């Protein structure tokens, strides 16, 4: 132990501030309280000519951001689809920063590279994916999609004699992406990043359960006239957690030579649960899959995972060699599979989370979140003036608040739904976010935090009831 270490005072200060934040999550408002003007006034200090002691920097950073941090680490945060951070995952992430390894190559980060190999093996086992699929650890599902679709672009164009990595896209056969019309915006962004263009993404109508129907997909495939096609399927869509019927759609897409990619940002984790695994029947037949670690695995931001059945296509799309890059053919070189060169060792936190929970703990966490989502949605729906729009089949549900003024219109209900959600946020007891679904404004309920329990659900329901009583 080195009591004179230049790191010790600042790190001990950071530990104290971090524990103060985490230990008081149950007592603090879930939403940020400080205004934009306040945060700018506090943080916009002049950059001095001389430096400031590290401990002072950390203490003032904690003070200046007070009230500007959402309680997304706690059990009463139900907005978007955001998990918390398990203790082992958070601690491992701190170690990752302290080690400061560049996880691009084995030479740069020997232990981190081995950890990444093991993470890929464990993740494929948990998610029910082919054991010989390749993988990448990315910043999130956005870049996981980009990685998987880059492999798809490579494979589809290689079948037509086109080397896209060498020759680019100018003059190449255009690729289309067919999907149900509830696809996430990260798919559109991936299409932009890869040069496919947003016009290549075609949303097909879905049924009442939010699923793409085989007839609609077949018709679109026929109209593609043999052009290269990626079929995007949903494993838990962003609004209602809908799952496409993989057992029917994947073989259909393959008959037309399409590449099938599965967006499983949170929903792919249902394969870790015996209770919900049936929703993913047939998903292992796909060509690529994407999911997040910072959602249902509950590791700190940022963490995403891409998996590709055709390892050669992924490697052709991602790998790069140069005389100044060390290479070890006895190990999996991370840079051969990942879109990023310089990056932190994201696998360390994922490794720690999976070790802390084990298979049984991950399954219990999935089941617990789904049960909490059901209790939360049905509990709020039982209140006067609330419409149950979608009861969760996993961890996502939708609610709508009805303006009970005589003659109220749909737009009045939309406005009132936004007002109620904002009032709950202002009360500090829970945080929900809203969405538009099938022409209606709805409060979107998402439960993705390992800490959410019965007491959190009860507090959130009571918070909504309090707002409605005061209306």
TrEMBL record:
Cited SUPFAM superfamilies: PLP-dependent transferases
Matching InterPro entries: PyrdxlP-dep_de-COase, PyrdxlP-dep_Trfase, PyrdxlP-dep_Trfase_major, PyrdxlP-dep_Trfase_small
Molecular function terms, GO-annotated: transaminase activity
Pfam family name, one: Pyridoxal_deC
Keyword Lyase listed: yes
Key word Transcription regulation present: no
Keywords of the record: Aminotransferase, Decarboxylase, Lyase, Pyridoxal phosphate, Transferase
Superkingdom of source: Bacteria
Cofactor(s) needed: pyridoxal 5'-phosphate
Family recorded in the similarity comment: Belongs to the group II decarboxylase family.
Record-linked PANTHER family: CYSTEINE SULFINIC ACID DECARBOXYLASE, GLUTAMATE DECARBOXYLASE-RELATED
UniProt protein name: Aspartate aminotransferase family protein
């Amino acid at each position: 132990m080195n009591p004179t270490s230049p790191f010790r005072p600042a790190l001990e200060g950071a530990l104290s501030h971090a524990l103060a934040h985490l230990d008081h999550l149950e007592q603090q408002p879930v939403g940020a309280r400080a205004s934009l003007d306040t945060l700018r006034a506090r943080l916009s200090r002049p950059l001095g000519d001389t430096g400031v002691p590290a401990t002072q920097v950390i203490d003032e950073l904690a003070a200046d951001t007070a009230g500007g941090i959402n309680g997304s680490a706690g059990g009463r945060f139900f907005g978007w689809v955001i998990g918390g951070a398990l203790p082992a995952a958070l601690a491992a992430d701190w170690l990752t920063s302290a080690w400061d390894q560049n996880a691009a190559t084995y030479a740069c980060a020997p232990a981190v590279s081995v950890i990444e190999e093991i993470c890929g093996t464990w993740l494929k086992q948990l998610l029910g994916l082919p054991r010989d699929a390749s993988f990448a650890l990315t910043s999130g599902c956005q870049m996981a999609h980009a990685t998987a679709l880059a492999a798809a672009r490579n494979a589809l164009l290689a079948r037509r004699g086109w080397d896209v990595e060498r020759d680019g896209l100018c003059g190449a056969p255009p690729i289309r992406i067919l999907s149900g019309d509830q696809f996430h915006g990260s798919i559109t962004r991936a299409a932009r990043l890869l040069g496919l263009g947003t016009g290549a993404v075609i949303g097909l109508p879905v049924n009442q359960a939010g699923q793409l129907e085989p007839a609609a997909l077949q018709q679109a495939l026929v109209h593609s006239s043999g052009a290269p096609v990626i079929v995007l399927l949903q494993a838990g869509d962003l609004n209602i957690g809908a799952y496409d019927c993989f057992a029917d759609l994947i073989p259909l897409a393959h008959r037309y030579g399409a590449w099938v990619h599965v967006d499983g940002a949170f929903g792919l984790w249902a394969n870790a649960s015996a209770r919900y695994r049936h929703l993913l029947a047939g998903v292992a037949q796909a060509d690529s899959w994407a999911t997040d670690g910072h959602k249902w695995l509950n590791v700190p931001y940022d963490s995403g995972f891409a998996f590709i059945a055709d390892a050669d296509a992924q490697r052709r799309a991602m790998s790069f060699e140069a005389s100044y890059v060390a290479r070890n053919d006895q190990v999996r070189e991370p840079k051969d599979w990942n879109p990023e060169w310089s990056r932190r060792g994201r696998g360390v936190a994922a490794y720690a989370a999976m070790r802390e929970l084990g298979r049984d703990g991950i399954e219990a966490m999935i089941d617990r979140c789904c049960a909490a989502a059901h209790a939360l949605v049905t509990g709020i729906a039982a209140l006067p003036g609330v419409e149950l729009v979608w009861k969760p089949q996993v961890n996502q549900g939708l609610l709508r608040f009805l303006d009970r003024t005589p003659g109220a219109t749909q737009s009045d209900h939309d406005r009132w739904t936004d007002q109620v959600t904002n009032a709950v946020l202002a009360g500090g007891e829970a945080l929900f976010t809203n969405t538009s679904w099938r022409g209606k404004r709805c409060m979107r309920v998402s439960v993705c935090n390992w800490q959410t329990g019965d007491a959190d659900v009860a507090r959130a329901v009571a918070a909504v009831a309090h707002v409605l009583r005061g209306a």
